[in-house]
Amino acid sequence: MGSLKGAPESADPLGIAMRSLLVPVTLLSLVLVSIVADGGPRVDSVEAGTAVRMSLEELAAEAELILEGRVLTKLVERRDGRIVTDVLLACDRTHAGEPRSFRWLTLPGGVLASGEGLLLAGVPSLDVGGEVVVFLSAANDAGMRLPVGLAQGQWSVARTADGRRFVRQSPMARDVVVSGAVEQRALAYPDFLARIAAGRRRSPR
Question: Most distant CA pair in the chain: distance in Å?
């Protein structure tokens, strides 16, 4: 899985994002946020990647690692001059890749306690306490992975009053997909698993 906390980062976050994507990209905005002396935000705009639409089966086929679990904590820090977010996931199930009880994910960007931050359009924010399924790319040279298809590769797990699970794609997916509509309807958990299995059967990995 992603690098352990404290692993070095040898490339800038934008370069990492672009090299790690497994789908074609175009251009969208990346937002840099910092705090000026009077305490107000300063927002600068540069360019970042967006993704074409991918079906659930395509996400499963392209991912090297598919994890399901709960976000325990996340830490934002500056590492080798870059801002990164380390996320600790308690893994309930590994749908693809080596099973482990816990995984550290390292994502580019985040907001420091000082208010200075780097927010990349399309890179999902994993909230502490959230139950998620993430479809992850192969690790790059810095040991970092990104969700396949950017926000398309993050899904949230929820439960009905009678305990049945259902899964929904991150709403951020609508902001990064430039061709085709994303799948916003909730999927029953058994159907979700069946579609992952179908995608894995056609995976080259």
Answer: 56
The answer to whether residues 1 and 71 touch, using CB atoms and an 8 Å cutoff, is no
- Amino acid type, 115: G
Worst-scoring range by mean pLDDT, 27-41, 86-100, 122-136?
27-41
Q: List pLDDT tens digits, range 117-165.
A: 888 878 888 999 999 999 999 988 877 788 999 889 999 999 999 999 9
Average pLDDT score over residue span 180-184 = 63
The string of DSSP codes covering 118-165 is: EE-TTPPP--TT-EEEEEEPPP-TTS---BTTGGGGEEEEEE-TTS-E
Cα gap 155→166, rounded to integer Å? 10
- Can you read off the two tokens belonging to residue 75? 């830490």
Cβ neighbours, 10 Å, residue 86: 21
